[in-house]
Each structure stands twice: as structure tokens, then as C-alpha cells.
Design goal:
mainly beta, 21-stranded mixed sheet, five-stranded mixed sheet
């Protein structure tokens, strides 16, 4: 089977070297004489008005002609036939992925005479049944697009804001982009006809976006589109970039935002904090500038080269600058008595627990442990005093007066504490530190350049390049060595080369290649861990360790973030692309054969967790006796656990280099058949082949449930590595889906000169699971989570797996194909762990969408068109981790019954929460007197329930990729009104009435914003309302084209208006 797939891959690669899709438009029509008879062999010439570029074809035997692969813009079509007057049609607008119909009726006469028609392009769409929307550069510039950021930093202008003008779609803050009920961020974005979707994370569109002023047009296909478009769920976005023309054109702009131009916040009084503003509303500070310039025209070197009608350039420069001055904020630092271990002020009232004599489990009684200690909220217990009581429960002794002796404070904890700022409000326990004012900024710079050259009358060449660079210090007011602030320095480069050739009057060829590179480092400050530990105790990178769990929202502690946290890595996206297509006009048919190829790799230098992620909690200084007793609150205190150095959780990994990636190939064949002058039929077939997401060198592990684990005494349940050779499983974790075949059909019938019926349906496939920051967790990492209230290690001991560590543990390294899960934390102790990666066998299957629409378009009056359509779809196979039907480490009541546990009895329920060292446990299960009977190294502090699990060596086993069980349902009425006035003014309005349901999916990622079933008992019958959906509401905008030089300064209140959704 693998051999066949390789052969198929080679075939598809070769095919994509020959054929693929484009970002152009087309003009089609029929040439006839005065009597209505078709005219064959008529010479048809289309001239791009701005550049002077000429495209020539001839009418077929049926009088039909098609000018395919035309760059978008304004055209003039000329038809010349001997015996007839020359016919000239002006003001023909070609849009992306749109076919414009121009029927020509010749008049008898000499070719030296001419007839000129200057009517504008009709608004009716008569040539296809797809649902699509086109937005030109003028409309893009009219949008008030500096709207992101809220209280945080904003972003550069985003052309995706046009989504807010579309029916059935919503867009918010670069994170939520939803079209026709599809999961958020499942769109496909093309620049100059090739994939430009952010492969690192689709939610972060602005990392790779082009400059808005460099975009000529945005075309969005949303339903039953042609076979040449695919691998998209929520919309296919095609950005066509501006080209130079025969005339030099340029513009300078500045989109300026200042709070002085805004209305104040209602029902507020700025005079409360500033007497000079008494009676005024509060205006929050807002300062942004988005400025730049454009310039383009022919390349003309006097006396050397004249590029008129031949060579053109277009240059754009845009920069967004925003600076925020944050006055003050508050945080929590240790209350002064806590610094010396005095937590007497944190101790609360006595805890109440369930009365074991109450059969209903409702009555509460004061908590008193097995050795007579009264238990109080936030009471501090000494972990070193832990022992078994006579009743088999674990108990501890409290610190006298809730005070920790100074001699018991961990030396590393003392050093960290000394770095913390002192409280500015010494009497408060929480919010007792005023963060000093600080400044933060974001700068985004996007230069771009496009070059067009006519090699001959039949061969055209274009090149495009853009560079998007965003930098920000990520300041948060803390400049100390422990700061969590991470500066960002993201850059993306997009390169495109397109080649178009008219092979013959009826055959056109398009070829394209491209490269998208994105570099997104998470830069953390350096820190010498030698200040805390000796070399044999340090972690794997010189950064401050990430320390958390030190704060209580009522009694305080420390809420300042310590260390860079989870997100420290250097990740890149390398995406070569290729596409091509061949168009053949024959009779009334326009055939197109094509394909595309996308090869994506995500090389990553992963330092996440290499600094040590160390967590503390109240449990480590609480008493384990209270587990399962139903207490209203708990003992223990997080900051006290920190001072004692009793680590409650640890995640570590060496620095690792990984490379995730997948490839996609596609082929299609389609035909546009002009059955009659009024009836057009589009039909086609597309085949998509996408490889599963995998680590290129087999360095990503996967849970293997039926493979013996040598670290667990040969019990089933270990980790394996993909691929062939030493240490690998000689297998693949997933299988590529080879049956992604998508038929498409559409019909457009012009009932009369003012009415068009349009309909279509088809199968489309979305993208297979993408990186979505999975790079963080590809490499082996070691999470250590002990039993309730137990201690992982001491903070002073640092990394328990460093070379030469005092615990005697074997050091860890990456990759290590022999190191299984679990692993020793100290000699002879191998506690259970959570295996993070579990890949569903079918996770590589792309989502499948059946989409359809049926609608009418009617010209109510001159240049006033109304369109109404029923648009629907059904989606399956979306990634939905919450719908995993198998909990691999669950215990069923029937499993417990086999070992004599009756869950209806309170004694048996309590028994499950006791440690296996308890006499009550060993009396029922004598074999547990030796914990090694579970597996060698199983700690006797683990609870009985863990020892009875199918895989006692593991804790939770979350799904990492898959399963593809998510479904979506969508039905809508989408209405659109367009009115075109004179002098460049037009008005558009859209309205959507829709119902959208999802099951287990809201987003394209496997673990972001999943949506579970509304009722787990009826997974297949109980979908729920989409979290990211929106209520029916109108979207209206008007636009007026001003015919003068564009040197403008725009303010935060723009002349164009958008009525947003409710």
C-alpha cells in the first residue's frame, strides 16, 4: 500500500509541475451578425486600458470566444471581421475568479468604420452558479480597518476586514474568521494565486498579510465554487496585487488615530481624576499611525529603455506605529509577615467535611483528622511529618502557630523571594504592589514590489515580493530578571513568479511558483541558573525557571509571573508552492486542466520547558487526610509550599530541534459549457491528496496501548516513535486519506435580460490538521505530577535529570528512542505520568464539506440589483478531541466489581482514595503490600484507584491529533443589494438569516476552543449552537470614488461607514 501511495505522490508532483490554478479573471461571449447567426474566426482583442497589454483570441466555429487568464482591471474589447464594421466595447471590468459576459453583435460595413459601446459592466452574474464576493482596492481603502487591539496593542490595517461586508461571515481581532458556519480559521488564503495561509497558526493572519494598499482586489469564494479551488473550509480568499501601468501613479496616506477625535465614554466624568476636565466624558488614550506611500508606472530609462506597453513596476511601503504609555497597575507581592514564614494571618475558619454517618452525604461536621488535629483553612502542615495513621489514612503535623521556621525555608526559594519587589501597601495582602508606569509599542513594516513584463505579444511574466516585519518589546512593567515579558520580532517574506502564454488563439498556459517563509521567535531574557544551582542541578537553558502557583486570591502570596512560561521557542514556516493550468476553448466549451502543490515544513528550535516549569500549590503544605472528605475549603497555602521548596509539579525537556510538516497536491479538470446563450453549465472534478502532519525524522512519540513497557515491568502501554530503523516502530502513526475526490456542478440561466437563476452543489475538502503551535510539544517532555498532596522534589535540588544529578537518575536527552514513560524520579521510585501525545489513526483525514446554493438575481431598476440565495452545507471529519469515544485509562464500574469494589458503598468509595500503603487497602488487596506488584517502582503513596487502572503507569492520555469526529450544519438565507450610481458612487447591503450548529468543533486546531456535545449521552443527536456564530444582522456600506490625486490624511472617523453586526 505504501508503495502505491509513493507512486501516486510522484505522479501528483509531476502533474503539479505542469498544471495548477491562477488568480485571474475572464471575458467570454458570442460574436454574431445582424441576423443573429454566429460568426466564426472573428479576431477578438482585449486591451488592458492601464498597461496597454493586448490579449488576442479568435471566435470558435460556434461563435464563442473566451479570453482566459486575464489580469484584473479595466479592458477594451475590439472585434474585427472582414465585411463588418469594427466593434469596440469599453469599460469592461475583469475581477478575480469571475467571468464577465460580453456578447457582440456586428454591423455590416467596412472595417475602416467602427462602432464603440461604452456601457459599464453589468451587475448581473450570468456565467456561473458559485457564491462569491469581490472587493476592489477602492473599497478596501474606504473601510475603517484600524479597529483591532481593544485595551491592548492594535495591528496594521488588515484586508480581511472585508469579511464584515459579506453575508454569512464574521471576523474579529484576527482570531475569529468564520464563513458559512464553518469552524473558525479554516479558510485558505492565496496571494497571486498561491497559498499564503499562515502555517504556524492560522489564527495569526497578520504575520503573513500583505499591505492593504498593495492589494488590487480580494475575491472570496464561499460556496459551490469551481473545481480549481479547494483545500478550504471557511472561505477561499484570493488576493491579487496591484501592478504598474503606462502612467506614473502614486499616493501618500496616513491613517491617524487620536482619542481627541473620539466621543467620550457615556456616563463617565473625567473630572473625577482631572479637575481641568470636569464635566467631560472619559476618553481612553489611543495613539496610532498607519502611514505609507505607493508609486508605480512603466520602467523607462531615457535613451536606453522604453517600458511603455511592456514593463511596469509597482512599489508600496506601509508602516504601522503604536505606542502605549501605561500609567499604573496593581499586582500582589508577599505580605511582609509571609517573607519570614509567618502565615498566622492567612489561617481561616475551621473546615467542614461530609458526615460519614449521613447516607445522603449532605450533613457537614467540623473536620478533625485521624490523629485529632482540628483542620482550618490555609493551615500549614509539615510535609516531612507525613505518616500512616491507625486507620490507614495519611496524616501530617501542622506547624505551630502556622509559622514555618526560618531554618526550613528552601535556599533557592529564599533567593527568588529576595528578587521580588516589596509591597507598596504594607497593610494589604492582595493587590498590594503598584506596578510602575511603562511604555510598550508595536511597529509593523510592510514594503512590497511587483514587476510585470511582456516578453512578447503572447508571453507575459510577473514577479511579486513582500516583507512583513512586526516588532514589539512585549513590556509588562517588570524589568527584573524574572520577567515574563517576551519581545517579539516576527518576519514573513512572500515571493511569487507567474508566467502566462497564449499558445494559440484558443489555448492558454499559466505557470507559477512561489515561496512563503515566516520566522516567529519567542525571545526570552537570559539568566544564569548558576545563581540558584550547581551545574549538576541546573536545567537545560540559561533562562529564569518558570515558577507558578504562589498566589491565593483572598490571602495573597505572589501573583507576579516568574520566568518566560510555556511559550519559548524559535519556529519557522517554509512553504514552497507551485501551480499551473491549461485553458482550451473549443466550440461552446472552455476546458481547464490544472493542479497545485504545497510543501510545508515547520523547523523549530524548542526551548519551551527547557528552563524548568516548576509549580507549587496548597496541597503540598496541606494534609492528604482531607482527600475525598468533601471539605468546603482546603488546608495548605501555595506561598508556604514555595518557601518550603516542596515542588508540586515539574515539566522539563532538553532543548530540541524538530521539523513538523505535511504536503498537499491537487489536480482538477473542469468545463464551462455555454449550452445556449442563456444557459451556462459549470462542472468539474477535483482530487486532493494531503499527507498527514508528522515529524520529518520520526522524533515524535505516540502512545502505544498494546506494546509492552519495559519501564513498567512489561505491562502494556508505552511510547513508540514513527518511521523505520533503530528505536522506531517501523510503522506510521496515521494513514493518508487517498479518496478526497470532489465533484462540482453549477448552473446559471438568464431567464430574461434582468433575471438570472443560479444554483450549484459540490464536495470540497478542507485542510488536514495543521501545525497550530503543536511544535511546542513534539519533542519528548517529562511532566511529573505526584499523588494528591505529595511532593515531586525539593526546589533546592533543581533538575532531577541533569548529568551527575545527586538523585542518581539517568540523564535525559533528545531524541531518545529508548526512554519510555514512566521514568524514575529518584532511585527505585517510578511514579505514573501523563503521556501527552496520542494520535488518532485517522487524524490525517481532511474534513469534507457538501455545499450547495440556489438563488435568484434580479435587476430591479437600472444599476440596481437584488440577489437572494439559500446557502447551506454539511461538514464532517473536523478534528474534535472532546468527542474521543475512548478514555483509554478509565475504570468502569464493571471493572471495579471484578476486584470486589462496590461503588454503592461509601467505604469502598473512600477506599479508592487511600494510598496503597494503607492497612485498609492491603487488607483487601494483599498483593499491594509490595507496590512492585503493580510495576517496579510504583510508589506506595499512590491511591488505590491508580493501581487498578488499565495503565497504572499513566495518568491522563489526552488526544493530541484527532479524532476527526466533528460535524457542522449550516442553513441560511443570504440577501444582497447593490446600487451603482453615477460619478463613482455605489451602495451595497447584505443580510443573513442563518442557523449554524456544531458538534465538537469551533476552530481548525485540535485543542483550541473545542466544542463538546451539549449532552454527552447523545453525541450524534445533540449538536449545539456554534460558539463563534453570530445573530442575523445587516451589513451596509457605501463608497464613492473621487477622481483626483490621492494624497489624503485619514482620521479615526472615516467618511465610509459600516453598520456592524449586532
Amino acid at each position: 500500500m505504501r508503495t502505491r501511495l509513493r507512486i501516486a505522490g510522484v505522479f501528483l508532483f509531476a502533474a503539479c509541475s505542469m498544471f495548477a490554478q491562477s488568480d485571474r479573471g475572464a471575458i467570454t461571449g458570442t460574436v454574431s451578425d445582424p441576423a443573429g447567426a454566429v460568426v466564426a474566426g472573428a479576431a477578438v482583442e482585449a486591451k488592458h486600458v492601464d498597461s496597454g497589454t493586448v490579449y488576442n483570441v479568435a471566435s470558435t466555429a460556434t461563435g464563442n470566444f473566451t479570453l482566459a487568464q486575464l489580469p484584473i482591471g479595466n479592458y477594451e474589447v475590439t472585434v474585427t471581421v472582414t465585411g463588418f464594421k469594427k466593434f469596440v466595447r469599453q469599460n469592461i471590468t475583469v475581477q478575480v475568479a469571475t467571468t464577465t459576459r460580453v456578447d457582440i453583435t456586428l454591423q455590416v460595413g467596412a472595417t475602416t468604420e467602427s462602432i464603440t459601446v461604452s456601457e459599464s459592466t453589468p451587475l448581473l452574474k450570468t456565467e456561473s452558479g458559485e457564491v462569491s464576493h469581490n472587493f476592489d482596492s477602492n473599497r478596501l481603502n474606504s473601510l475603517p480597518v484600524i479597529t483591532l487591539g481593544g485595551a491592548g496593542l492594535g495591528n496594521v490595517r488588515n484586508p480581511l476586514q472585508v469579511v464584515n461586508l459579506m453575508p454569512g461571515a464574521s471576523f474579529a481581532n484576527d482570531n475569529t474568521l468564520r464563513v458559512n458556519g464553518m469552524p473558525s480559521s479554516t479558510q485558505s488564503i492565496r496571494i497571486e494565486g498561491q497559498d499564503a495561509t499562515n502555517g504556524i497558526w492560522r489564527q495569526i493572519n497578520q504575520d503573513t498579510q500583505p499591505s492593504l494598499d498593495a492589494v488590487q482586489e480580494v475575491a472570496v469564494q464561499t460556496s459551490n465554487y469551481a473545481a480549481e479551488y479547494g483545500q478550504a473550509g471557511g472561505g477561499y480568499f484570493n488576493f491579487t496585487m496591484k501592478s504598474g501601468t503606462n502612467q506614473y501613479h502614486g499616493g501618500v496616506y496616513d491613517y491617524f488615530v487620536n482619542e481627541a477625535l473620539n466621543a467620550g465614554t457615556p456616563f463617565t466624568d473625567a473630572g473625577l481624576t482631572d479637575s481641568l476636565k470636569n464635566g467631560q466624558h472619559i476618553r481612553n488614550r489611543q495613539r496610532k499611525n498607519d502611514y505609507g506611500f505607493t508609486f508605480g508606472g512603466p520602467i523607462n530609462i531615457p535613451k536606453i529603455y522604453d517600458g511603455h506597453d511592456k514593463t511596469f513596476f509597482f512599489f508600496n511601503f506601509e508602516q504601522y506605529r503604536e505606542t502605549q504609555n501605561i500609567g499604573t497597575g496593581t499586582s500582589t507581592v508577599p505580605f511582609a509577615p509571609y517573607l519570614g514564614g509567618d502565615f498566622s494571618g492567612a489561617q481561616g475558619a475551621q473546615i467542614t467535611v461530609n458526615d460519614p454517618t449521613d447516607p445522603l452525604g449532605v450533613r457537614k461536621i467540623p473536620a478533625v483528622d485521624s490523629i485529632g488535629n482540628n483542620l482550618f483553612q490555609n493551615q500549614i502542615f509539615n510535609p516531612a511529618s507525613q505518616r500512616l495513621a491507625a486507620d490507614g489514612s495519611l496524616v501530617r503535623d501542622p506547624f505551630v502557630g502556622n509559622k514555618i521556621p526560618l531554618t526550613s525555608i528552601d535556599p533557592v526559594a529564599a533567593k527568588v523571594q529576595a528578587m521580588l519587589p516589596l509591597a507598596t501597601n504594607a497593610t494589604a495582602k492582595t493587590n498590594n504592589y503598584i506596578i510602575p508606569g511603562y511604555s510598550n509599542f508595536r511597529h509593523t513594516t510592510i514594503p512590497s514590489f511587483k514587476l510585470d513584463h511582456n516578453l512578447s505579444a503572447k508571453v507575459k511574466l510577473s514577479m511579486y515580493y513582500s516583507y512583513t516585519h512586526t516588532v514589539s518589546p512585549g513590556a509588562n512593567g517588570f524589568t527584573q530578571v524574572f520577567t515574563t515579558a517576551q519581545p517579539s520580532d516576527t518576519e514573513s517574506q512572500t515571493t511569487r513568479i507567474n508566467y502566462d502564454q497564449t499558445v494559440s488563439p484558443t489555448i492558454l498556459l499559466h505557470l507559477g511558483i512561489g515561496l512563503l517563509t515566516t520566522n516567529r521567535p519567542a525571545i526570552s531574557p537570559s539568566f544564569d541558573q548558576g545563581q540558584f544551582w550547581a551545574p549538576n542541578k541546573q536545567f537545560y537553558i540559561n533562562q529564569f525557571p518558570s515558577i507558578g502557583g504562589l498566589n491565593d486570591i483572598f490571602q495573597g502570596g505572589n501573583s507576579i509571573g516568574l520566568g518566560p512560561g510555556f511559550g519559548a521557542l524559535f519556529v519557522k514556516d517554509l512553504k514552497p508552492t507551485a501551480n499551473a493550468n491549461l485553458t482550451w476553448v473549443r466550440g461552446n466549451h472552455t476546458f481547464k486542466l490544472g493542479g497545485e502543490m504545497v510543501v510545508e515544513g515547520i523547523p523549530t528550535l524548542n526551548t519551551s520547558r527547557a528552563n524548568g516549569i516548576i509549580s507549587f500549590g496548597a496541597n503540598q503544605t496541606g494534609t492528604p487526610w482531607e482527600l475525598g472528605k468533601g471539605g468546603n475549603v482546603t488546608t495548605g497555602f501555595g506561598y508556604a509550599s514555595f518557601l518550603l521548596g516542596t515542588v508540586g509539579g515539574l515539566q522539563i525537556t532538553p532543548v530540541a530541534e524538530t521539523r513538523l510538516g505535511n504536503h498537499s497536491f491537487a489536480m482538477y479538470l473542469q468545463d464551462t459549457w455555454k449550452v445556449t446563450r442563456k444557459l451556462t453549465l459549470d462542472y468539474g472534478l477535483r482530487y486532493d491528496y494531503q499527507t498527514e502532519l508528522k515529524e520529518q525524522y520520526g522524533r515524535m512519540q505516540n502512545a502505544a496501548f498494546n506494546t509492552p513497557n519495559p519501564n513498567a515491568g512489561g505491562r502494556n502501554g508505552t511510547v513508540i516513535y514513527e518511521g523505520q530503523g533503530g528505536g522506531r516502530c517501523n510503522c506510521n502513526f496515521q494513514s493518508n486519506y487517498p479518496y478526497a475526490i470532489g465533484p462540482r456542478v453549477g448552473v446559471a440561466y438568464q431567464i430574461d435580460s434582468k433575471t438570472v437563476f443560479r444554483a450549484g452543489a459540490g464536495l470540497a475538502y478542507g485542510s488536514a490538521p495543521n501545525n497550530a503551535f503543536l511544535s511546542y510539544s513534539v519533542n519528548d517532555f517529562y511532566p511529573i505530577a505526584p499523588a494528591y498532596a505529595q511532593v515531586v522534589s525539593q526546589l533546592k535540588d533543581g533538575n532531577p535529570y541533569q548529568v551527575g544529578n545527586p538523585l542518581g537518575n539517568p540523564p535525559i536527552h533528545y531524541p531518545d528512542f529508548t526512554h519510555g514513560y514512566p521514568f524514575a524520579t529518584s532511585p527505585g521510585v517510578v511514579p505514573p505520568v501523563s503521556v501527552f501525545i496520542s494520535i488518532d489513526r485517522n487524524a490525517g483525514r481532511p474534513p469534507r464539506i457538501f455545499q450547495w446554493s440556489i438563488g435568484m438575481q434580479r435587476e430591479i431598476a437600472r444599476d440596481l440589483v437584488v440577489e437572494a440565495s439559500y446557502v447551506g452545507n454539511r461538514g464532517v471529519w473536523w478534528t474534535a478531541p472532546l468527542l474521543s469515544t475512548i478514555n483509554y485509562n478509565a475504570l468502569q464500574p464493571s471493572d471495579l466489581a471484578k476486584v470486589g469494589i462496590d461503588l454503592t458503598k461509601s467505604f469502598d468509595r473512600n477506599l479508592l482514595s487511600l494510598p496503597i500503603a494503607s492497612p485498609l487497602v492491603t487488607a483487601r488487596f494483599p498483593y499491594l503490600q509490595n507496590p512492585n506488584n503493580v510495576y517496579p517502582g510504583f510508589p506506595n503513596s499512590q491511591q488505590l484507584i491508580q493501581a487498578l487502572k488499565p495503565y497504572p503507569q499513566w495518568l491522563g492520555i489526552p488526544p493530541f491529533l484527532g479524532p476527526p469526529l466533528g460535524d457542522t450544519w449550516y442553513d441560511s438565507l443570504q440577501a444582497k443589494v447593490t446600487k451603482r450610481y453615477s460619478h463613482g458612487l455605489d451602495v451595497q447591503g447584505a443580510f443573513t438569516w442563518q442557523k449554524e450548529l456544531t458538534l465538537g468543533v469551533n476552530s481548525d486546531t485540535s485543542y483550541l476552543t473545542p466544542a463538546g456535545a451539549a449532552d454527552q449521552r447523545c453525541i450524534q443527536l445533540c449538536p449545539k449552537q456554534a460558539n463563534f456564530g453570530f445573530q442575523p444582522a445587516p451589513a451596509v456600506d457605501h463608497f464613492r470614488q473621487l477622481h483626483h490625486a490621492r494624497i489624503t490624511r485619514r482620521w479615526s472617523r472615516d467618511e465610509s461607514h459600516v453598520v456592524g453586526r449586532a
